[in-house]
Amino acid sequence: MLISFLALFCMSMARFLYPELRTMTAETIVSELTSFSLTVHTRRNGQKRRIFSNFGRVIRALYGRKPPAEVPKAPGQVVLDRFG
Q: Helix, strand, coil shares of the chain as percentages rounded to 5?
């Protein structure tokens, strides 16, 4: 139960932070993420090479170089930022 809640929370946060994902439902996000694959080749010297394949719209948004949308801050949060 907790894992499904956390998964839905992460998808909601991704839709909130990336405007291009706001029109997608949880089912479409899951279907795009299931087609994504990562292959890791380890060389003899221990160096790892990661090969990403089957990029969808979700992976491009999350892994891309574009920063997420600005999130509005609460009035009292400015004080808390100084301690971080």
A: 50, 15, 35
Indicate if the pLDDT at residue 20 is higher than 70. Answer: yes
How far apart (Å, rounded) are the C-alpha atoms in residues 84 and 81? 5
**φ, ψ for residue 34, nearest 5 deg:** -70, -25
What angle separates helix 2-17 from helix 26-35, to the nearest 10 degrees?
Answer: 90
pTM over the 0.70 mark: no
Q: Name the β-bridge partners of 8.
A: none
What three-state secondary structure class fits 43?
Answer: coil
H helix runs in 1-84, sequence order: 2-17, 26-35, 57-63, 77-81
